[in-house]
Amino acid sequence: MAFKLLASFVSLLAALQVANGAATKKVTCASGQVTSNAACCALFPVIDDIQANMFDGGECNEDVHESLRLTFHDAIGISRKANKAGVFGGGGADGSIAIFADIETNFHANNGVDEIIDTQAPIIARHNLTTADFIQFAGAIGVSNCPGAPRLDVFLGRKDATQPAPDLTVPEPFDDVTKILARFDDAGKFSSDEVVALLVSHTIAAADHVDPTIPGTPFDSTPELFDTQFFIETQLQGTLFPGNGSNQGEVMSPLRGEIRLQSDFLLARDSRTACEWQSFVNNQYKLQSAFKAAFRKMTILGSKEHNLIDCSDVVPTPPAPASKAHLPAGLTRQDVQQACNKKAFPTLPTDPGPVTSVAPVPPS
What confidence tens digit (pLDDT) does each residue in 225-246 have? Predict the structure, then answer.
């Protein structure tokens, strides 16, 4: 009896090993690169093209920032309520923002995305990818150039849009927190924690059009690094600009040369999001893992994941983190407007360097 049980166990173990081997089987592409699915081989030449011709050979540059922004502005163009009611509410990550650029770039919330759409267009034309797949893929590859970033998931198989997304599906920087959370819930049942996680993208972001008098103004002091400074610096003392003038959506920052969006300022201080916001302050691992999960969810809005091909293993491994959480020079804990009432703001060192202004992000 014992022998039969042992034999059964050995047979089961062998079967599991065979199954595991099948699951991890790799394909060697004609280029010599290895991936888990032959369909993903087509992506390696695309990586070479976009790294050379958009990202300056692998830099975390302005086109990286703009490519990541475009992934969101395309994907968030979907309304579950409208689609359920039989009124077209957008197809999510379907490439509509580029395919129908003459329409969607005129939406107020999409101001400025025409530049990265124009930059990506000739590269899309050189490769056999849908526009929907390319937009999300380019964003993920761009992020892989940024020190401290997670290795994002990528998929193939999205269908291109046949009509433009409706207006008013992209949140605006002057929206209040309730409106922002409702928009994300309608787009894809994003929780308040997932909304905060998606805004990790602002760690490498800059604004050209919120205040056109100061183009290339970053959202934190380290826009070339995928780090936690954004979540620290949005909690520093600040004042909302009054009225609806040219500064609408902008918040005064104590750091010269830095811009803060009103929406980020409010989310950092709202009881529904403040503690999650603070949780990223000195937690690089959580920053990476939360954004990776939220990006994965966002990037397939409008598609079923089981209908897509997972090509995540073609994404380069990002450089290691290159900074540690700190308060900017000249500032102390007293300069923090803490809103989380459940946990104290972490103790952080202050940058010993002289007080300087934050340099604008140079155009690509």
Answer: 999 999 999 999 876 555 454 4
98 occurs within a structural domain: yes
Answer yes or no: is 92 a known binding residue.
yes
Q: What are 170-225's pLDDT values in tens digits?
A: 999 999 999 999 999 999 999 999 999 999 999 999 987 677 777 789 999 999 99
CATH number at residue 272: 1.10.520.10
Residues paired with residue 206 on neighbouring β-strands, in sequence order: 218
**Cβ proximity of 313 and 28 under 8 Å:** no
Please report, rounded to a whole number, the percentage of residues in the chain having pLDDT higher than 70: 89
Mean pLDDT, residues 76-104: 98
Catalytic site residue 306?
no
Number of domains composing the chain: 1
Q: Is position 167 annotated in a ligand binding site?
A: no
Residue-wise burial string across 77-113, b where 16 or more C-beta atoms lie within 10 A, e elsewhere = bbbbeebeeeeebbbbbbbbbbbebeebbebebbebb
Q: Choosing from 65, 73, 108, 127, which is the catalytic residue?
A: 73
Q: Is residue 202 a known part of a binding site?
A: yes
- The answer to whether 94 is a known ligand-binding residue is yes
Which range marks the domain in which residue 90 is found?
39-335
What pTM, to 2 d.p., does this model score?
A: 0.91
100: in domain? yes
